[in-house]
């Protein structure tokens, strides 16, 4: 089995003890991190090496940033950043081959406040992501695009649709862009296995959201047809959100069978 996980860590250095705990306790084959919030030279790769994880990363000072860690095998980088906007300097995308799978780690723009330029950027970014995912699909390879999509797909994916109705995460345009990815043949693993919803991956630090379980699902793992056929199980490591100085996200993961 190969286990691929995604975790918006909300600051890799600030949450390093929690991150190392999670890696040791759950031991994903591949861990995709978002919001590492550090420049390349400050990424704590040596700490992961001590646990047997080799890493590639795409950092940025103070915010954004993505990384791919692999247990005992060096990820072979395919690319970083998305084509289509030469002025986009945000570190939000990194792609690698590891364990026979194409792994893309994404941190999709939030888009708030909407309407406005940040929301327009979000939608343009989603179109660029779709273009890249179409290129991956054309290769007909087992692939996963995992991370923080900043999209709540359905009303069943949020504790209160009314409370979030004005948010960029729930706008019809955001959802439509996400649904186009699914229509292109990608499988939302956690959505597929939880058709009734009620599964959250994010709880705000404010207003007692965690204590009241006022969360929503914005961290997703989309599988290509070639990998969806091998899906064994998936889940959310919710308990890790309860720990001291935790990220406001919980890790999501998929477990897939080895290639025949």
UniProtKB/TrEMBL annotation:
<feature type="binding site">
    <location>
        <position position="249"/>
    </location>
    <ligand>
        <name>Mg(2+)</name>
    </ligand>
</feature>
<dbReference type="GO" id="GO:0006281">
    <property type="term" value="P:DNA repair"/>
</dbReference>
<dbReference type="GO" id="GO:0008311">
    <property type="term" value="F:double-stranded DNA 3'-5' DNA exonuclease activity"/>
</dbReference>
<comment type="similarity">
    <text>Belongs to the DNA repair enzymes AP/ExoA family.</text>
</comment>
<dbReference type="InterPro" id="IPR005135">
    <property type="entry name" value="Endo/exonuclease/phosphatase"/>
</dbReference>
<feature type="binding site">
    <location>
        <position position="248"/>
    </location>
    <ligand>
        <name>Mg(2+)</name>
    </ligand>
</feature>
<keyword id="KW-0378">Hydrolase</keyword>
<feature type="domain" description="Endonuclease/exonuclease/phosphatase">
    <location>
        <begin position="7"/>
        <end position="249"/>
    </location>
</feature>
<keyword id="KW-0464">Manganese</keyword>
<dbReference type="Pfam" id="PF03372">
    <property type="entry name" value="Exo_endo_phos"/>
</dbReference>
<dbReference type="GO" id="GO:0046872">
    <property type="term" value="F:metal ion binding"/>
</dbReference>
<dbReference type="InterPro" id="IPR037493">
    <property type="entry name" value="ExoIII-like"/>
</dbReference>
<feature type="site" description="Transition state stabilizer">
    <location>
        <position position="150"/>
    </location>
</feature>
<protein>
    <submittedName>
        <fullName>Exodeoxyribonuclease-3</fullName>
        <ecNumber>3.1.11.2</ecNumber>
    </submittedName>
</protein>
<feature type="binding site">
    <location>
        <position position="35"/>
    </location>
    <ligand>
        <name>Mg(2+)</name>
    </ligand>
</feature>
<feature type="active site" description="Proton acceptor">
    <location>
        <position position="249"/>
    </location>
</feature>
<feature type="site" description="Interaction with DNA substrate">
    <location>
        <position position="249"/>
    </location>
</feature>
<keyword id="KW-0479">Metal-binding</keyword>
<dbReference type="InterPro" id="IPR036691">
    <property type="entry name" value="Endo/exonu/phosph_ase_sf"/>
</dbReference>
<feature type="site" description="Important for catalytic activity">
    <location>
        <position position="219"/>
    </location>
</feature>
<feature type="active site" description="Proton donor/acceptor">
    <location>
        <position position="148"/>
    </location>
</feature>
<feature type="binding site">
    <location>
        <position position="148"/>
    </location>
    <ligand>
        <name>Mg(2+)</name>
    </ligand>
</feature>
<keyword id="KW-0460">Magnesium</keyword>
<feature type="binding site">
    <location>
        <position position="8"/>
    </location>
    <ligand>
        <name>Mg(2+)</name>
    </ligand>
</feature>
<feature type="active site">
    <location>
        <position position="107"/>
    </location>
</feature>
<dbReference type="InterPro" id="IPR004808">
    <property type="entry name" value="AP_endonuc_1"/>
</dbReference>
<feature type="binding site">
    <location>
        <position position="150"/>
    </location>
    <ligand>
        <name>Mg(2+)</name>
    </ligand>
</feature>
């Amino acid at each position: 089995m190969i286990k691929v996980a995604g975790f918006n860590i909300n600051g890799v250095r600030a949450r390093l003890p929690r991150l190392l705990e999670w890696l040791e306790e759950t031991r994903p084959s591949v861990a995709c991190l978002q919001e590492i919030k550090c420049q390349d030279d400050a990424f704590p790769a040596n700490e992961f090496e001590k646990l047997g994880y080799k890493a590639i990363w795409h950092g940025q000072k103070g915010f954004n940033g993505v990384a791919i860690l692999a247990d005992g095998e060096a990820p072979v980088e395919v690319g970083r950043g998305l084509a289509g906007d030469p002025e986009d300097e945000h570190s939000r995308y990194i792609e690698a081959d590891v364990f026979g799978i194409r792994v893309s780690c994404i941190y999709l723009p939030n888009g708030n406040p909407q309407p406005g330029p940040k929301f327009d950027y979000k939608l343009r970014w989603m179109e660029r992501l779709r273009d890249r995912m179409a290129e991956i699909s054309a290769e007909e390879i087992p692939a996963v695009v995992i991370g923080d999509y900043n999209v709540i797909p359905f009303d069943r994916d949020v504790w209160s649709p009314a409370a979030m109705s004005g948010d960029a995460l729930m706008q019809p345009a955001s959802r439509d862009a996400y649904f186009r990815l699914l229509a292109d043949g990608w499988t939302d693993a956690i959505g597929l296995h939880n058709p009734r919803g009620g599964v959250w991956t994010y709880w705000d630090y404010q207003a007692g959201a965690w204590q009241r379980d006022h969360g929503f699902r914005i961290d997703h793992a989309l599988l290509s047809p070639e990998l969806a056929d091998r899906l064994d199980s998936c889940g959310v490591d919710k308990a890790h959100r309860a720990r001291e100085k935790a990220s406001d996200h919980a890790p999501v993961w998929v477990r897939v069978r080895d290639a025949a």
